[in-house]
Amino acid sequence: MDYASYILYIPLLPLASFLLISLLGGKRLGKVGGIIATLSVAISAGLSIYTFSKYFGSDGLVDGTYQAIKPIHYTWLKFSEGLSIDMGVLLDPVSVMMLVVVTGVSLMVHLFSIGYMQGDERYSTYFSYLSLFTFSMLGLVLSTNIFQIYMFWELVGVSSFLLIGYYFTKLSAVAASKKAFIVTRFADLGFLIGIMILGFGAGSLDFGTIIAKLSGNQTAEAIAMSGTTFLGVSALTWGLTLVFMGGAGKSAMFPLHIWLPDAMEGPTPVSALIHAATMVVAGVYLVARMFPVFANVPVALDIVTWVGVVSAVFAAIIACTQTDIKRVLAYSTMSQIGYMMFALGVSGTGEAGTGFTGSLFHLFTHAFFKSLLFLGAGAVIHYVHSNEMSDMGGLRKYMPITHATFLLACLAIAGVPPLAGFFSKEEILLAAWNSNPIIYFIALATSGLTAFYMFRLYFSIFHHKDYTPSGHGHHGEGGFTMMLPLLILGALTIGAGFLPFSEYISADGVPRDMELHLAFSIAPVLTALAGILLATSFYKNQNEKPAKVAAMFGNLYGWAYRKFFIDEIYLFVTKRILFNILGNAAAKTDRQVVDGGVNAIASATGFIANRIRGLQSGHVQEYAIWFLGGALSLTVLIIYLLY
Amino acid sequence: MSEIPLSHILFVSTALFFIGMYGMFTRRNMITMLMSIELMLNSVNINFIAFNKYLFPGNLDGLFFTIFIITIAAAEAAVAIAIIINLYRNHKSIDVEEADALKH
Known about the structure:
Chain A is mainly alpha-helical. Chain A has helices at residues 3-6, 9-24, 26-29, 31-59, 93-116, 123-142, 146-164, 171-202, 207-214, 220-227, 235-250, 259-262, 268-277, 282-289, 291-296, 298-319, 325-346, 354-384, 400-414, 420-435, 437-462, 480-495, 518-539, 545-553, 555-561, 566-612, 620-641; strands spanning 61-62, 65-66, 69-78, 84-91, 229-230, 233-234.
């Protein structure tokens, strides 16, 4: 099949399912809604896999380089010669890989949700939202134009908002959805300004043209943009940093991460899809998409690196102290995305592009094992009816499949060979080592922490103490549709690492051999094992050690438990400073100047009206006299004054 | 017999107009007011005829205007009398000072 003949069905089928379900009315459809949505995503996933094999199998490689194919391209809004908002489909190694990740994980989540959401009142609505999200994410991935990506970016934000606030009767869910929307929207403001700067500088909004014009130092556009400075920083750096701000907001990078933990108020499969595997990696995808331009600007790349590193460590420390299992996973996601970010930051181009490959490889493998972890957590929550670790423990006998797959995913995220996470993490650590040993050691320590908190989670759920079924064990582990995704994702967690990823994706599109040095792997694997052993001794059985160690760390533990007060700082800045100073000033202006002006006009009108109402006496003859007076004065005016 | 000069006729029509206006402002009886209005209209008619005859003897424009005005005046009188009759039915009076319900 030709790409143009079918590629549009991949994003449009979920859209059709969204429209169908929401127009037919959610409640009337009942279970059919779930089937429609799942089928449409299944077809999309099939087509994506077909595209993947076709692109990497035959079409993509031309003269030893993977080319970008635009099967569909339509100029939508034209502002000037060159500057236009286009709608199109862009197929290159990164977007084809993302297609498979998004549709694959989405299909798994749809399947899982059929069982998980059973009996929910707004079952079909839930699936229509999922479809909307899948459509937006696919549109984002396939965008040819930076403005097109921005539109889908916002659509993704909306569907995330809808899904986080799905349980809208819960106040905390409503607050979380608002928080997610406002924080990411604030970041998107930066993104929009960045788009404008880059679009103005490059004279185009098309990705290919922007990259061609701004990635070298020779082109007139790149020289002009580097020459123009604002506050001592060049326009190019400003543009890229602001674009990265949008990406950091969506990807929950420090300090814009505060929405992600709260977003766990949504249904758990949603967390698996949106807040683990797809939407939150949009920032990584965006930086990867613009990578040749970033690589040209060391300052912007350094910002990406350090934001990534800080997020990775910061989130890992917090994850060690949380007791809500979904929040542990949320911080773990943030930490892993930090990895992907700094891998991009330390990457060079061409031969030195290990970080680029590693970052996207980690994105690929992380999508599978993290959605597996979330779906596993979903199954556990479904069984226990609680998110708290203290309500769990000893579940391994009751949920054997969940237990096995969860363990697999924990090993993968910890980086134990030969599971998927091991390979991708190795690439990232290798890139860090080649670039800056400080980053390497921070990353190594973080991977130890990762192993520790993941196994803390694992032992707390499945070992630790005996589980006492407390009345509501009315159902087993979950039906076939809930277990099948776990098994498929488990298989992918084992298998995905063996994909020769660097032959598919590299910074310049040239296939390369995987860089893997066995000697180099020793330190990370040992660190991971140390983390796992430590967690085993702390949490396998109930004992005093965790409490003692927590006491030893003293304040640090408390701070980490309270998430380093970032939320409080935001509250302080917004409530105390912004609301008090700017907000009060704005409120005063509104009340006194705007409202005051309108009131003044109204009262002046009323005052004058009161004064002259006597004129309207109801006596016809008085009116006639006024009329006569007017006519006479006009006559006098015309005869004596104008002539 | 010498011809009457234009100024004499204009004098008559002006006098007629201001008599009508005086009546309009001072009479309380609505029918008298209506009659005053007719006086004013007729003063205008005289003006039209006079100017037509003295300034443009070959044209008939002034005559036609006069005929129109007479027609309109007839219609106006019919409407005004209808209003006055209705007012009388409601108020038992055609005193214009008492018909002051339409006010602030």
